[in-house]
Design brief:
Largest sheet: 6 strands, mixed
Number of helices: 27
Helix content: 25-40%
Length: 727
């Protein structure tokens, strides 16, 4: 299930934050990670007496520590040596060490990693062996150790999560033996455990001492920067993809002589030898790039509630400091509209449609309602003063039971998410759309505590019309007010009629802005087809527009974002409110972008004719101005590169574009030319003022990026060739 996150605005708010790594970060409960018992890393290292081998082993162990750190509470390390402290040299010493390490008896809940770094060989029988200093090629069965036996010492232990890394010559040659021996595992172990083996060299290839260290280190860099896998643990498939990409990057970076052909497969590409478990997440594969999102609201409403990043952004924008509570857009202003929503949340039952043109603050209104009603948010001291507004605009605790954003949802996925949030589900094994509709209808019709459900972004659903007719179908009857005097007495002897659950449904949908009259003087329709479909489906619903007479609210919005700022006195703030309000055309998104530039440049910008013209051009003009400023500020991005990256995010399907290989490839398609050093260019974009135009989300356990508003996405997709950015 995708988890929505907030804009990357906190990055844009302080482009120089990266230069102050020791600056204190705000604290917020992150929720517990899957900690569990400490993991165990058993290292079986057999040196060959060559000092360069010893140095390579030290580099390998340093790289391993990036992934399985022995400092702190993550992993215990046990490295091989004999009782007298000398390296292992005989088969007996290897077997004694494995026994002493407790490898085979590792507790079921303890993640286990076995790392073998040594020389290996393939015998004439195709069996693979660990070569020891005392190994005789004439007596392999007696003096060498079968590599499969080493691997299965870990694989057939009690640990449920096991990873074996074989850094040996020709280590991939052991695959056939490992696969054959799987049949000797207990069936329950094959079903419940996650067993993975990684070979670092192919058949016929020797192991290169420093190669694994370099591949692991580069893969760690990828995992903590561009890959952005949004899960605390990796699958073997994800891990090997990281290693493969790292190996290919290292290969590309190797210098080559002029006129010489690059050697084929010069960097060994690690490969998994068991495939049965490679797509299951394993606690033996911690994700070093995972950063848990701070929790602002309970799971049932987090899809619509304001996120931690949004709150921190508006906290800074409203107050100019990070240690004062929010006084900004999410929690002040628009008193009439907020009061309407709160009154509705206290009503017996019904439906309300919140609508308006693009950028007019529909989601902000619903997000405020959801966030302020959530007990988790209300209990956080940091945002206490957010509840100091007019009492009639503050929803009661727990007022919203479930909330989802319909963006890219099908009717089935939306009903499943709502059903899980409300605690109702069809019978086990029932997964069809009708099953979830029936389960939700039954839940809403029977007695129980009242529920308030919020569905925002209906216009961004996968198929909005189908969504309205199917996903919202269970709510039509449940939200229809009972007609007075129309009740039917219960049959004699059956007692009073059962009361229905009180159900309130809040819907957010974009619609055309109302225009009083057409060219011929006739009144134009105030809504588009989608809004009419909703109104037809819910004839009893009240429609509330948030784009009628917005000037007073935009004036207050501009003032609160500029108050207490250096260089901004009361006269300058009032002038800014007039200038921006006159040009924002009722769009709070337009106003926000304009104020961002005013805060950065100061009141003098109000007299800049070019800037005033850009503001009058709408969001397109402001975006072009920010692109010029970002390029002029030495961000390391050209205007053309910045536009290409932003446009690529707008063309991404689903919830956004993943970094990794996808964003660079999509940008290259947009620019019709490859992006040089794309990872660095993306990093620079996310540290520049242009990051404020992006929001992050999660899809398929990856962080993805898209424009912060659908109106921005439409502008970027239509961006004319002559406006791709100044050369």
């Amino acid at each position: 299930m995708s988890e929505q996150r907030g804009p990357v605005m906190a990055v844009a708010a302080d482009p120089d934050a990266s230069q102050c790594p020791d600056a204190p970060r705000p604290q917020w409960p992150h929720g517990p990670l899957e900690s569990g018992p400490r993991g165990l890393l058993v290292g079986l290292v057999v040196p060959d007496g060559d000092p360069s081998f010893d140095e390579a082993v030290e580099q390998q162990l340093a790289a391993l520590e990036l992934w399985w750190p022995r400092n702190g509470e993550a992993f215990d390390w046990r490295l091989s040596e004999t009782p007298d402290g000398t390296p292992l040299s005989t088969r007996h010493e290897v077997e004694a060490y494995l026994s002493a390490s407790g490898l085979r008896d590792t507790d079921a809940a303890t993640p286990l990693i076995l790392f073998v770094s040594a020389h290996g060989l393939s015998a004439k029988s195709s069996r693979h062996y660990l070569r020891l200093p005392d190994t005789s090629d004439e007596r392999l069965l007696a003096t060498a150790v079968p590599t499969s036996a080493l691997a299965y010492a870990a694989l057939d232990s009690r640990a449920r999560d096991v990873l074996v890394i074989l850094n040996m010559c020709e280590s991939a040659a052991v695959q056939g033996e490992l696969v054959a021996l799987q049949d000797d595992l207990a069936p329950v172990r094959k079903e419940e455990a996650r067993l993975n083996v990684l070979a670092t060299t192919e058949r016929g290839r020797t192991v290169l001492g420093l190669e694994l260290a370099r591949v692991l280190s580069r893969a760690h860099l990828l995992a903590t920067t561009s890959e952005q896998i949004a899960h605390p643990h990796l699958t073997m498939s994800e891990f090997t993809q990281l290693l493969n990409r790292a190996a290919k990057l290292l290969e590309e970076e190797r210098p080559r002589r002029r006129g010489a052909r690059r050697a084929h497969a010069r960097v060994n590409i690690p490969q998994p030898l068991l495939t049965q478990w490679q797509h299951e997440r394993s606690r033996a594969l911690p994700n070093p790039g995972y950063e848990p999102s701070p929790r602002v609201a309970k799971d049932a409403v987090s899809d619509v509630a304001a996120t931690f990043d949004e709150l921190e952004h508006w906290l800074e924008k409203a107050s100019g400091r990070l240690d004062k509570a929010d006084g900004g857009w999410y929690f002040s202003g628009r008193t009439r509209l907020n009061r309407l929503l709160v009154d509705f949340a206290r009503s017996p039952r019904g439906a309300m449609i919140v609508t308006g043109g693009a950028g007019t603050g529909k989601s902000a209104l619903l997000g405020r309602m959801v966030t302020l009603s959530d007990p988790l948010f209300r209990g956080e001291e940091r945002y206490k003063t957010a509840l100091d507004g007019p009492p009639e605009t503050i929803p009661p605790p727990g007022a919203v039971s479930a909330a989802i954003s319909a963006r890219n949802h099908t009717a089935l996925t939306a009903l499943r998410q709502l059903g899980e949030a409300l605690g109702c589900a069809p019978a086990e094994g029932s997964v069809e759309l009708g099953d979830w509709q029936g389960a939700l209808e039954e839940f809403l019709s029977r007695p129980g505590p009242p529920v308030t459900v919020v569905v925002d972004g209906l216009d961004e659903a996968y198929d909005p019309t189908h969504f309205i007719t199917t996903a919202l179908a269970p709510f039509v009857t449940a939200t229809r007010p009972a007609r007075r005097g129309a009740g039917v007495p219960a049959p004699a002897g059956r007692g009073p009629a059962t009361r229905r659950r009180k159900v309130r449904l809040l819907l957010g949908v974009r619609s055309a802005r109302p225009t009083p009259t057409g060219d011929d003087g006739s009144r134009r329709p105030a809504a588009d087809d989608l809004l009419r479909e909703l109104a037809d489906r819910f004839p009893h619903a009240r429609t509330v527009r948030c784009d009628t007479d917005p000037d007073e609210d935009i004036d207050a919005y501009v003032r609160v974002l500029l108050r207490d700022q250096e260089r901004w006195d009361a006269v300058a703030v009032a002038r800014a409110a007039r200038v921006v309000g006159a040009r924002a055309a009722g769009s709070f998104l337009h106003a926000r972008l304009a104020v961002e530039q005013l805060r950065a440049e100061g009141p003098a910008l109000l007299t800049d004719r070019d800037w005033l013209r850009r503001v009058g051009e709408g969001i397109t003009g402001l975006l072009r101005k920010d692109i010029e400023l970002a390029a002029a500020a030495g961000s390391g991005l050209t205007a053309e590169e910045a536009v290409g990256l932003l446009r690529a995010s707008a063309f991404a399907l689903g919830r956004g574009v993943a970094w990794g290989d996808v964003w660079p490839a999509l940008t290259a398609a947009v620019l019709r030319a490859p992006l040089v050093d794309p990872d660095e260019k993306i990093r620079r974009l996310l540290k520049s003022r242009l990051a404020g135009y992006l929001t992050t989300d999660h899809e398929d356990d990856r962080v993805v990026y898209r424009p912060a508003h659908e109106q921005l996405a439409q502008i970027l997709r239509r961006w004319p060739a002559e406006r791709k950015g100044p050369r």
